[in-house]
Every structure is written in structure tokens, then in C-alpha cells.
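If you are new to this repository, start here. Below is one unmodified record pulled from the training split, so you can see the exact layout before writing a loader.
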Amino acid sequence: MRPQLFLGGLLVAIMGGGFYALQLPLAYFWSIPFVIGGGIMIVVSLFLPESEGPVLPPEGFRFCAYCATPVPLASERCPHCDGVQPREA
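And here is the target side for that same chain:
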């Protein structure tokens, strides 16, 4: 079970129920899709396995602070987004 997906689906379904209860013109239109989408998220979360933990970069790399692309430790700029990498303390 993925608790993050379950909680997200629960919040989306509650928001859809709130839209339905308020009956505001534009929000009321989206109430049923939100309730159905939240229900689908809840059901799917029950069948997905728990995540395995944090994703680590390959050896000799770090993740770019701006785009999360693996960047060599010696590089000062990301080859993907050209962002300046923070210096390690």
C-alpha cells in the first residue's frame, strides 16, 4: 500500500464532495470527476507496493539542484539545464 497516494486520493475525494455540497457553478461541474478520481487513487494505492526508499545517484555523480539530472561531482554546471551547482561543504 502506498500511503501517500491513499491520502492524496482521500483529499481529492473530500474536495470533490465539498464542491458538490457547495454547488457553485464552476466547482459543481468538477465535483463528480474529483470524487471518482479520488476513489480511483484510493483503490489503486491499495494494490501498489510500498516504495523502496530514496533514489541515490550513480557513483561519482550527484543530482542537479534544479532539474534532478545526474551531474558528475567535478562539474560546476549541469549539462542538461546549465544550472550552477552548489559547492559541497
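Two things worth knowing about this chain: Residues 5 and 45 are 6 Å apart (CA to CA). The two ends are 38 Å apart (CA to CA).
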